[in-house]
Amino acid sequence: TVVVLDFGSQYTQLILRRVRELGSYGELVPYDEPKENVEKLNPVAFILSGGPSSIYDENAPKIPEYVFESNLPVLGICYGLQAIVHQLGGKVEKSSHREFGPAELKVLKQVGILKNLPEKFTVWMSHSDRVEVLPNGFEVIAESENSPYAAIRSVDNRFYGVQFHPEVVHTQFGKEILKNFLSEVANLSPNWAMKNVAQEIIEDLRRKIDGKVILGLSGGVDSSVVALLLHKAVPDKLIPIFVDTGLLRKNEAQEVLKQFEGLGIKIHYVDASERFYSVLDGIEDPEEKRKRIGHTFIDVFYEEAMRLKEEHGDIKYLAQGTLYPDVIESKVAERKAGAKIKTHHNVGGLPEKLPFTIVEPLRYLFKDEVRMIGKEIGLPENILNRHPFPGPGLAVRIIGPVTRDSVKILQEADAIFIEELKKWELYNKVWQAFAVLLPVKTVGVMGDYRTYENVIALRAVTSEDGMTADWAKLPYEFLNHVAKRIVNEVKGVNRVVYDITSKPPATIEWE
Ligand code: XMP
Q: Is 255 tagged catalytic?
């Protein structure tokens, strides 16, 4: 395992992603993780991340002693570099000019991490302290205008440090630098591929699971991949539960059931829509809607699980589609709180209530890796590429109170939008697209009649991760066509508008 020690940089997860993309298995560990836990990972190299601290801060995080004692190759990035220099007897100074953004790197020695790279290229800087004196046995291998020690190494080829961030895309040849570290310095050959990973997970599940296992299946990518992995590992032990909240997209429940049937997986279907509509009756506040839906979901799932336990007796496990970012997030939260808090759960709070052992086969994977695994094990394209869908479903896309009728109107309009996006081959070009039903009536004219009906807003965004998003510049002819179809075909709608705000300042959803 390539161990990435986290000193708190916003880019730490990116370092790990690059390591895995380059074919080495890596894990992220807080810098103060106990030594025994790190040893268990069988480290083959260390990468020290950047971080917000200054070496001179009180309680500045330190590189743990075991890193120096290990004799393994070490790459320090930004704060990581400064910590190496500081702890090995060099000197880091507070710098009067902060260096932030692109800088030109001048390579002085094309060795180790800089092997086969051009003499000059652009790198991404983000720091204020800088190295002034190198520890004994170190040499400088690249400089920039503001950082005379932009890249350094120990002459025994074991320690490397860079002041810039090779993990971000703004650094040219950043990936090559990390690749050189893994192959040239640490002598690792790529052995992490999704094919092996899927097989390993399946075998691991087969070894571990010795009783019935339930799973909350939503039809989204993560829970679908978990379902298929379990099906391949322990086909006769899996009981997927699909809770129909009545707040799903048009025909979604039926489609999910059919698709999984096609894969040979029988789903335990629960229609709880009445119950959801009744707890939402008259509720307008978005957070209140979310809260009620969340609680109701847990209640329904709990009751169903208990019922199934009566029936099947030996249900032992609850599988969940928790991903690596969730795991990291809850680890960070745990440390910040300074106490052991509950781990992250996709279906908020479920496990505390349930007498099952949790199984999380995706807990070491990122979203795109989950997609690759899904593809590898034969999950159909349309599940793999399905747009994200919020847990509270259409309830947060109906502004104001939710009723069976308003759900129906929204479902129809949304289905037309999605159908046309697919027809025009635009569906896979956007991160997410959907319709929103507004609590506004406007005047229109249809034929010889004056109408007074609802407004539908269309929302489509491009995004990398949902954290920021840009409104999608969909073609006018397309929008024109969709608007016409919605007004003509969806009873109760006489006007369609298109949302042209990005996130921030708006969010993707309207509630
Ligand atoms: P926002 O609206 O915050 O959405 O820009 C970012 C992404 O998160 C999804 N989303 C949710 N997902 N429960 C969920 O499971 C929620 O309450 C929720 N709210 C927003 C949203 O669809 C988008 O992909």
A: no
